[in-house]
Design brief:
228 residues; alpha+beta; Aminopeptidase; 7 strands; GNAT_dom; acyltransferase activity, transferring groups other than amino-acyl groups; transferase; Acyl_CoA_acyltransferase; acyltransferase
């Protein structure tokens, strides 16, 4: 398969949604959703909103086969305000679809969405320690094991170096293939309980925060070069 790198544009939104769905079936948690695509749309646009690095792997048919979206944490007051406005708009839209019944049973849809929000707050609790965050990283099952994930990560790290971003993080859950991140040099910073909106703990899985100090990669690379 021939692929090339493209920057996210709205024309790639549906293709990004399809790629997310191929790995994470968010709709399984909803009760008979009529239009499950809205939760995928919300998820992608939420990641896009906070990200300055918007790298896609696109095939010859203009279909998205890989995504890495990353953000810079310290962007200044004005930009933070603009991000918050877009975030409010995205939240308004998803609540509107919940009220319309597009995501199935309203009570269940509210519960699932509020859990997503609560888990995200848990995952972002240590954000102030870092200069940047990987908001979304996914490669199509068709391309896994062929070095495309490393390619996306290398481009992201180059982006960070050019902008003086030294420490980055991401958070995920134990039901994901989190060992995947260790291959890129990430180390576990913290593990945390996932808190439900009613303050109870989700015992089915835990959250993990991974961190990466980019200058450490350069030191490690130089050591390997000398040893070689």
């Amino acid at each position: 398969m021939k692929v090339s790198h493209k920057k996210f544009e709205k024309k790639y939104l549906e293709s990004c949604m399809a790629l997310i769905k191929s790995t994470w079936l968010f709709e399984e948690d909803f009760a008979a959703p009529k239009h499950p695509e809205y939760i995928y749309k919300y998820y992608v646009l939420n990641c896009v909103n906070w990200s300055q690095h918007l790298d896609l792997l696109v095939d010859q048919n203009d279909q998205v086969q890989g995504i890495l979206f990353g953000s810079i944490e310290d962007v200044g007051y004005l930009q933070s305000f603009l991000y918050a406005l877009v975030n409010w708009k995205n939240q308004f839209e998803i609540w509107w679809h919940i009220l319309l019944g597009d995501l199935g049973d309203q009570k269940q849809a509210r519960k699932v969405y509020q859990e997503m929000q609560s888990y995200d707050r848990d995952g972002e609790a240590l954000a102030k320690e870092f200069d940047g965050e990987i908001n979304l990283f996914i490669v199509s099952p068709k391309l896994r094991g062929q070095g495309y994930g490393q390619q996306l990560m290398k481009r992201y790290l180059d982006f960070c170096r050019k902008r003086g971003v030294e420490k980055v993080f991401l958070w995920t859950t134990t039901d994901c293939n989190w060992k995947f991140y260790e291959r890129y040099g990430f180390q576990v910073r913290a593990e945390f309980a996932l808190t439900k909106p009613n303050a109870s703990i989700d015992t089915s899985e835990q959250g993990i925060v991974f961190q990466l100090t980019i200058s450490d990669l350069s030191i490690s690379s130089k050591k390997k070069s000398k040893e070689g």
